[in-house]
Write a structure and sequence with these properties.
mainly alpha; MetI-like fold; 16 helices
């Protein structure tokens, strides 16, 4: 008796329908997936058609950038006067001191170039020795910045910090606030969760006091009252006082962001580390904090972005940050009436830095997302 053998062959997979993959599917799902989405999408495109062409005509096609004074801008008022930005770019970026001393302009330029040179490799995944680069950025770079921009060492003329301004001042205030507030905020978050009543009470009082006080008030306190706490003869310029006030203020918000991450860690992590014989600081540094900081990245970066924008409040104590110096420059006798260009330039610079921090944080989140499925 002969038995017939049936052989089954797997047919090649068929391609999915064209309207379910690619950009066509994305548009259909996200822009026209429902009646409400369709209405909002059409309204959005209508607003773009209504406002974007006139804006581009004013900002790009009819804009003025030639010349060194306002003459050509006054003759053609239908376009933006970017000549103002070109003429006042040194003040807008570096402040009054370096604008008055062009031969010293290399100092802030070099500081920004070195910062970009250290930060860019950190954003590249395959860069080796990232920990060393980060250490140089957080420890060695501030010393280099103070020595180069501040001067007074190695034969470099000392610059008056009260005449710093523009992007240079905004960057310095934000960088110092971020670098110093993060470790201080971590300690405060740990202190608030401490079992020692004195440490916990001090951390709670500190955090709630600084969180409940407006930054404007803190800047006034730092500018007027801070010198009263030091012996006679010990003085700090307004920039250092503002840095101290901003750091104390920012550390409270950073502490709450980190505390949220600490509370999200399961108690089993602590119990497992105790079972391995780890002490408190070993548990915290090697087990708890890395997980908590990973969870807290969005909140921490959000506070950093808010800090960068809040540096504009230092104009209250007489410092010329990017926004204030743009405002003053546009209201001078030479350029009175070109406020829109000044505000747009300042807003663009703020957006570039804030958007850059946001993009980097999202990339860091994706990289540290250990819960995702690995194929």
């Amino acid at each position: 008796m002969t038995m017939n053998t049936v052989k089954f062959e797997k047919l090649p997979d068929r391609l999915p329908p064209v309207n379910t993959v690619g950009w066509v599917a994305w548009i259909k799902q996200n822009l026209f997936g429902s009646v409400s989405n369709t209405i909002i999408t059409l309204l959005f495109f209508y607003l773009i058609f209504l406002y974007i062409p006139p804006f581009l005509e004013w900002a790009v096609f009819n804009a003025n950038i030639s010349g060194n004074d306002r003459t050509i801008c006054d003759e053609n008022r239908s376009g933006a006067c970017w000549t103002f930005v070109k003429v006042r770019i040194e003040q807008l970026l570096f402040g009054l001191y370096f604008a008055k001393n062009p031969d010293q302009m290399w100092r802030p330029i070099m500081a920004f170039i070195i910062f970009a040179g250290l930060l860019t490799p950190l954003a590249i995944d395959r860069t080796p020795y990232k920990k060393w680069l980060l250490l140089i950025l957080l420890v060695a770079y501030p010393i280099f910045f103070i020595s180069t921009v501040g001067g007074g060492v190695f034969g470099i003329p000392k610059s008056d910090a009260s005449e710093w301004g523009g992007l240079l001042l905004t960057f310095a205030l934000a960088f110092v606030g971020i670098v110093l507030a993060l470790p201080l905020g971590i300690l405060l978050a740990l202190g608030r969760r401490s079992k020692m009543p004195v440490v916990r009470s001090f951390s709670i009082i500190y955090i709630e006091f600084w969180r409940g006080t407006p930054l404007i008030t803190i800047l006034f306190m730092a500018s007027v009252m801070l010198p009263l706490f030091f012996p006679s003869g010990v003085e700090f310029d307004k920039v250092v006082r503002a840095m101290i006030g901003i750091t104390l203020f920012q550390s409270a918000y950073t502490a709450e962001a980190v505390r949220g991450g600490l509370q999200a860690i399961d108690k089993g992590q602590t119990e497992a580390s105790m079972a391995l014989g780890m002490g408190y600081w070993q548990q915290t540094i090697f087990i708890i904090l890395p997980q908590a900081l990973r969870i807290s990245i969005p909140s921490i970066v959000n506070t950093f972005i808010a800090l960068f924008k809040d540096t504009s409040l230092v104009s209250i104590i007489g410092l010329l940050d990017l926004l204030k110096i743009a405002q003053n420059s546009s209201r001078s006798l030479d350029w009175n009436g070109y406020d829109i260009e000044a505000y747009m330039f300042a807003g663009l610079v703020f957006w570039i830095f804030c958007f850059g921090m946001s993009i980097y944080s999202q990339k860091l989140e994706r990289k540290l997302d250990t819960d995702r499925n690995v194929e």
